[in-house]
Amino acid sequence: MLEHPVLSVTRSQRRLGGHTATFITLHSSDWVNIVPITPEGEVVLIKQWRHGSEDWAVEIPGGLVDPGEKPIDAAVRELEEETGYSAREVSFLGKVNPNPALFDNTCHTYLAKVDSLPGEPRLEDGESIEVFRVKIDDLPAMVASGEIDHCIVIAALSFFWLHRGQVLASGRDL
Hints:
This protein has helices at residues 71-83, 139-144, 151-170, and strands spanning 2-3, 7-16, 19-28, 31-37, 42-50, 55-59, 62-64, 87-96, 107-114, 129-135. By secondary structure, the protein is α+β, with helices and mostly antiparallel strands. The longest helix is centred in the last third of the chain and has 20 residues, at 151-170. The mean pLDDT is 93.
C-alpha cells in the first residue's frame, strides 16, 4: 500500500471469530529511547517539533534503529546526535510494543550516565530540538501536568522509576 524510508503499510485479511476481517499493519524499524542522567542528578530532556501533533513535545532522546544496528548503539547515537551528550555508562531498562494494534515494532529503552558538559548536537535535516535539564524529582509533575505527554516517553520514565526504586532499595548509586 505504501513504501517510505521510515515505514511501510500493508493490508491483510485474517479469519477471527468466524469472520474475515481486513487489517492494516505499519512496518517500521525498531525504535529506541534513552534516559540520560547527569552527575548532578538531572535528566537531559529535549523539546522537539512533532509534525504529527503539529506541536512541540518534551521528550527524551530517541529514534529509529538503523538496519544492522544494535538497539543499544542506536540509543547512544541518538543521544549524541540530538543532545551532544556522551554516554559514560549505558544499561537496558526495558522494551514495549508502541502500538501493537497497528505497528509491528518494539521500542527499547536505556539509561545512560552522561558527562556534565555536552558537545555539539548533530541534528538531521528537518529536526528542531532544544536541549535542557531538569531534576529527576520534577519528572512526575511534568507527566501529571501534561507537559510530558508522549506515551513512549512516559513508558520509558516508568521503566526508569522502577529501576531507580530497585537501585535505591539496594543501597547502590543510580
